[in-house]
Amino acid sequence: MISVSTDKTKLDVRFIQNFLKDIYWAAGRTIEEVKTTIDASVCFGIYLDDEQIGFARVITDYVVFAYLMDVFIDEKYRGKGYSSILIDAMMNEPQLQEVKIWRLATTDAHFLYEKFGFTALEYPEKMMEKKIV
User: Fold this and answer.
1) How far apart are CA 26 and CA 51, in angstroms?
2) pTM exceeding the 0.90 threshold for the entire prediction
3) Whole-angstrom Cα distance, residue 11 to residue 29?
4) Which one of 28, 58, 86, 112 counts the least CB within 10 Å of its CB?
């Protein structure tokens, strides 16, 4: 049985860090950094028969803005629609229903997010960033 939960006590932090440390957007992220990001976010674990198979988190002020981050499904479980179940749970999470602007960054999953109403930025020239590497 598949389930999605926002209960942070159910999260397998080692599983999350093991995936993130090797992926392009979070390469090298330490277990301590993963714990910090979990503490500062609304987190979603997706579970198959109580085994965590994926993760996502949202940084938000609960009214104006939310940013999706670290969305993944373990490679063994891809292609079964679990990512859509995870994103659907995030979009329907009661505590996030007042959020007016949602954003994310992705290089390879546009088709997934488009199913949930995400589009390219309307005014990308207005966006700025500061990166510390």
Assistant:
1) 23
2) yes
3) 17
4) 28
